Amino acid sequence: MSWRFRTGSLTAPPMHGDSMSRMRNHEPDAPAEDEFDGPSKSLLKRQSAELQRLGEALIELAPPELDALDLPEKLRDAVDLAKRITAHGGLYRQKQFIGKLMRKIDVEPIRSALEARRQQQRTELLRFRRVEQWRDRLLSDDTALAALLIEQPGADGKQLQRLVAQARHERERQQAPAAARELFRVLRELLDPLATGM
Q1: Domain 42-105 classified CATH 1.10.3680?
Q2: pLDDT 10s digits, 51-80
Q3: Are 167 and 179 in contact (CB under 8 A)?
Q4: Are the CB atoms for 166 and 160 separated by under 8 Å?
Q5: What are the DSSP calls for 67-110, one per residue?
Q6: Which of 4, 79, 110, 127 shows a CA-CA span of 20 to 30 A to 58?
Q7: 189 DSSP 8-state letter
Q8: DSSP assignment, residue 176?
Q9: Fold identical between 42-105 and 124-193?
Q10: 94 and 75 in contact (C-beta within 8 Å)?
Q11: Structural fold of domain 124-193
């Protein structure tokens, strides 16, 4: 291609149709289709925060629950150490360290185990509340005992009637709720046998 000067400026010679087409279609700054820069910084930040939350959840577990997870030795040692740290700054740094360790392992079994534990806790809480609701209903509603015996025909009606009367008497006299606690225990055995090992 030859170039010529016009009034002090450099001017390219005119282009034919295919040359112009090639110039228009050429995009030197466009990335290749298969080019991938990796995860975004925001995604990496979210993943790091999630791993740190999982690590913090591990710190809350009792030793038998940790044993069941079969954690790598270095991670288990870091979790055990975090349980003993009382200084806020030191605990914060230890949690960050646990999060870094978790980036190097497959956390899916840990995530699944923690979710199963949360589900179990929710189930236990619902069963506990059901027992509480029946106890409170028995102490405030004279028709509640008959309704309970219909729902639970194997219940000892005389025992429940006696405990309800005693618990009401204690409440009226502002005494220690010994009968109310015993009523709760009996109801829990009746309504929630899994919690009592029956």
Answers
A1: no
A2: 888 888 999 999 998 998 889 999 999 999
A3: yes
A4: no
A5: HHHT--HHHHHHHHHHHH--SHHHHHHHHHHHHHHHTTS--HHH
A6: 127
A7: H
A8: -
A9: yes
A10: no
A11: Diphtheria Toxin Repressor; domain 2 (1.10.60)
